[in-house]
Amino acid sequence: MALIGIGVGAASLLFYSIGVFFEPLQQEFGWNRGQISGALIYLTAGFVVSGPIVGSLIDRFGARIVALVSIPLLIVSIVGLGGMNGSIVVFYVLFFAAGCLGAGTTPVVYTRIVNGNFKVSRGLALGIVLAGTGIAALALPPLLASQIASLGWRSGFIVMAMLAAIAWPMVYFGFRDLEGAARPAAKAAEGIDRSEALRSRIFWTIAIGFLAVAAAISGMVVHMIPLLRDAGLPVPRAAAIASLIGVGVIIGRVLIGWTIDRLFAPRVAGAVFLITAGGCVLLNVGGAQTAPIAAFLIGFALGAEIDLIAYLTARYFGMRNYGFLYGLAYSIFSVGAALGPAVTGNLFDINKNYSAALWLMAACLVFGALAMSTLPRFQKNPQQ
Fold it and tell me: CB of 382 within 8 A of CB of 77?
């Protein structure tokens, strides 16, 4: 249930779908790629504003009630996108609203439940649940491309709203009586204080390292379909290749989750980020011919992002203030996820190609790998 909830949450639906809307919105309103992908900045601003607040509410009241309130608000925001009249300001406001009001549909909610109920195989459990983003990356591009081709771009947003609604009955009926879903139990109090965590080099190394990685991966995910269209591929073929990102995410989530239960997680993350940097270089040099391999590698790295932030937050800081700390880290991560597509779009508008952007993405991934290499060993605390 958590897997599906993440797959139809605000971050998955809006992030993985926006690339499919580039061409129809350009044709309808005359917006350029930088303007359209810039909407993710406003989505992120919503996550940044609401993330720590939602995390604190989860720590106090539990994840279930937060999700039950947030899901209908997300649906209203997405329906609003389908009714736009051509104002870029309205477009941005609705993305910001989705980030603020839909923050209770993000992994902040679902990873709290997983971390509260799994200890020995926590990495694998997080990997399986967060594979929901991979399912979204795999299914959304071809589904929405077909829907838009048949009934227009407005119907694409309606389909997304319907998908978001799936989570509400699942959360209502499926998350009763789970630790972390209702008011947190006493055992969840294990861990360090907020102030101590926020003074820690470890927290900021995780946050900044994953910000850089998020910028690189998100820039490529959002612009994969436009890049392939520029290479002369038809929309269905481009969407099919882009969906390989989802395959990489699903495999990456489960495999990396299983691995970090056995090997030191930051080293695993660093290795994955370096491999993916190679994928960006490969795509830059080989173009559309190497796109399937690059798409898979990008998805594989995407499979190491959110679950590793959740895993590292729980292992280094415990569960007492997990919602707040993960909410803050996720907000910072989201800044990178929004900047990547916007910077990539603007670099394309300046250079009329994606070469400079791909080199920048590779550099960001190397930086993230180096940041992970500086993290210390975990303290052996069975309650974390």
Answer: no
Which two three-digit tokens encode residue 371? Answer: 């940041």
Whether residue 334 contacts residue 245, with contact meaning beta carbons closer than 8 Å, is answered with no
Residue-range domains of the chain with CATH: 2-372 (1.20.1250.20)
Angle 118-116-379 (CA atoms, 0-180°, nearest 5)?
Answer: 75
**What's the token pair of residue 209?**
């390292």
Please give the average per-residue pLDDT across 221-233, as a whole number: 78
CA–CA separation, 32 and 25 (whole Å): 9
Residue of 45, 371, 39 lying closest to 201 (CA atoms): 371
Neighbour-count burial for 341-365, b at 16+ CB within 10 Å, e otherwise: bbbbbbbbeeeeebeebbebbbebb
**Would you state the pLDDT for residue 186?**
47
Tokens of residue 46, six digits: 């919503």
**What does the alpha-carbon distance between residue 138 and residue 133 come to, in Å, rounded to a whole number?**
9
**Cα–Cα–Cα angle for 184, 190, 195, rounded to 5 degrees:** 100
* 361: CB partners within 8 A, 6+ apart: 215, 216, 217, 219, 220, 277, 280, 340, 344
> Tokens at residue 76, please?
């209203």
Residues 6+ apart with CB under 8 A from 352: none
Comparing C-alpha atoms, which of 119, 127, 382, 113 is closest to residue 258?
A: 127
Residue 360 in tokens: 């920048």
Query: Which of the pair, 299 or 36, is modelled with greater confidence?
Result: 36
SS (H, E, C) 289-315: HHHHHHHHHHHHHHCCCHHHHHHHHHH
Mean pLDDT of the 48-74 span: 87
Q: How far apart are CA 312 and CA 300, in angstroms?
A: 18
CA distance 95 to 287: 32
Give the pLDDT mean for 284-298: 79
